[in-house]
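Quarterly update from the structural biology core.
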Amino acid sequence: MHHILTRPRKHQHFGTASELPPHRLKFFSVALPIFLVFVREVVPTVNSVLWKPKTPSQFSLCVDATQPCRLMIPKIIHQTYKTDDLPLAWKMAPAEWRSTHPDWKYMFWTDKKNRQLIKDKFPWFLTQFDAYPNPIQRADVVRYFILYEYGGVYADMDLVPLRSLEPMLRNSDAMLSETPNVGLTNAFMSSAKGGDFFKFVMYELERHSNPLIGRFSRHWQIMLSTGPTFIWKMASDYDKLTGRPNKVRVDSMPAWVWGKCKICKRSCDPPADGYLQHAQGDSWHHWDSWLFTHGIFCHVEFCVCLLWIGVLFVDKHFTRRFQPFWNSDWTIFYTIILGILVAF
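Predicted structure, tokenized:
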């Protein structure tokens, strides 16, 4: 019997079971930036074509025609700044509020007035109020106490009214504003006097005064203890409460109604029938706030690509789990180029 000699069959070998075929890794490296650009640029464009955006005038909480539609909060506007001497960009804000709301009371609060309010009306909170390490935290919390004590509307100094807010505030006992970024914010809020929601918020402040991540980042210390992320969590927690005797409905106002800009934009043009215009803000931001917002949030696609490049770099020089992938070194270079393009 003759033995038939055959060429041994080649087997693909990728080192370990955890290694992936190089062509898949190449495909992923090329496809990732392209997909991120598609999500950022193409999807919003398609949505704007398929779905005509609503205008602020179309927003109303008066959905039941059989019930009266009236303003349920006091006609008071509250704003606060550290002193009476406003920055140039905000100098005209008080006059604009008085002009567009002639029958409303305008109350301006300084840091000194804020502390006096806590001392006179809420002495049980004064120790915690003074203990906050950042002035913006005191500016955050006092707005909750102001709305509980007086009711009305609170608006950040960088929000300039274009017309009366009454149509969008009718039929609401308490209102928070949505941000075009993520979740809710405390930049614009309204409440009836002595409202139960802000009473709930006030008594939750001490329990949230020292978040763990806040020990490493000033930005998250503020956001989680008193700022937008805190009030977003409070709204969620309050909504889940059952059996609370005086519980009220907390409405949320979409960002497209009140004219809030995305955090990645310094300013934006309001719609023709808009209520508010957003001037330059974020006066409390330090370097870590800039890093998390403008550096990461506004360039998330680039950061994802950068992370992938880091994974590939560490693997090539240390772990070697994707070893066959490095037979073509152009891939990481191509990924870097696409990542830079994504950033812009």
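The mean pLDDT is 77.
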